[in-house]
């Protein structure tokens, strides 16, 4: 009798709620990823037309241009990849990121209005305008998604890109009417060539954004399960959505003001990470940051060596690679739906 009860009691004990075992971070693949990213950063430091080893002022130029550029690459890659990860989690859609929701276009509109109000705006003013407008634009997109029921996940990025196209056309019209288009021409083509000491330091704000996203990671993950589930688990859904949107807008606005438009980076990296690690924001965040850095460094190195001594804007390479990944994700989703049928 007692022998029969022991397994049952053990089964009862094992059925009690247990603490969730998170995936280990410091695994061999993650250490390899960090090592590869560090090697790419070193390559970036020594890639360029100017001969830093053969010129008298080589070391001075190294710290004025090469080091700031590499730091900017790493911070920007982490920021855009994180923004894509959070947006995909909140909208429950793999195809959403700042480019496919119109967030970047709203940032450009914010920059344009800053130039209209202030003829020679400082970088802080440009950042403020980009952050405010990107927040407003992202909230408009989220409100639209909540009000309209969509049958297909593919419709979500299509609507976002249509909204972005409308905002971009409006920005072009305003720029032509007030003759300020030339002031934001560099924004439309994201490039790291102008980065040097004194022109990238505000990107360090991204570290603060990363810390805040990590703090709110669990609540953002619950919000990604839907309003009903999040509310039943004690999460204030509307508040966490506002916080997530604010963090996204802060990261995108800083990048838009300092670097410019960088398409599809937030689409490529989070999808690759989620494909192998699932949808837990806290455990995926370090992976997304590291792979975002590696991706943009590779694209920037290619932009410097393809037609050396000239340079291709990194946004062109990102746009090409991102478009291919976007199509691949669509085809993958289509195949999975066919299998389910």
UniProtKB/TrEMBL annotation:
InterPro entries: ABC_BtuC-like, ABC_transptr_permease_BtuC. Keywords: Cell membrane, Ion transport, Iron, Iron transport, Membrane, Transmembrane, Transmembrane helix, Transport. It is a multi-pass membrane protein. This is Iron complex transport system permease protein. Its main location: membrane. Belongs to the binding-protein-dependent transport system permease family. FecCD subfamily. Pfam families: FecCD. It comes from Paenibacillus amylolyticus. One of its GO terms (cellular component) is plasma membrane. It is found in: Cell membrane. The lineage of its organism: Bacteria, Bacillati, Bacillota, Bacilli, Bacillales. CDD domains: TM_ABC_iron-siderophores_like. GO terms for biological process: siderophore-iron import into cell. GO terms for molecular function: transmembrane transporter activity.
